[in-house]
What we know:
Blueprint: E1 5-10, H1 14-17, H2 28-34, H3 37-50, E2 54-60, E3 105-109, H4 120-126, E4 131-137, H5 139-152, E5 156-165, H6 169-179, E6 184-186
Parallel strand pairs: 1-2, 1-4, 2-3, 4-5, 5-6
Amino acid sequence: MMTKKAVLVLDVINELVHPEGSVGHDGFYEQSKERNIIKNITRVLDLARKYNMTIIYVVFGFSKNYAEWLPNSKLFKHVKGQEQAILGSWATQICDELLPKEGESVITKHQIDPFLNTNLDMLLRLNNIEEVILTGVSSEFVVLSTALSAHDRNYNVQVLEDCIASSDKHSHECAVHIISKIANIVTINELTFK
Length: 194
């Protein structure tokens, strides 16, 4: 019997991958552009849709009043003061090139881990998903966290190395090295969709 797979598109939002995104200035935009991840993820999504695979988008952000913001977070310490990542704004919209199609789910999260306090696990279970295929930004935070959480929930995990990006090359390489210990690292050309 075939393994049922889902493609996860993690935090490919304007704030990170658009030249005008404020968080993207930390290196995420340049690395995403250099690694050509928008074009590569588009290719993956086209193939996934061809094979009627489950596609789930994950979007990071906060309410306008930052009720979900963690004041002790080193990573997010400047987000509130700089009014970044407000849900419903241009900043947290999925980039135009990768907009979801009808019937594809979009999950909102407020922390790094997309399984934390969201319905991601429930959606995967309801669709009988056994394997998740990870794409998106950023390698060292969201992709790593998702791989760890999916692993601990007994999913097979594949990470598309040519569909993820970090804030810098070193962080990307370190993240891929760690992820490779719990998940399969592959390229689009090595991925099987059937």
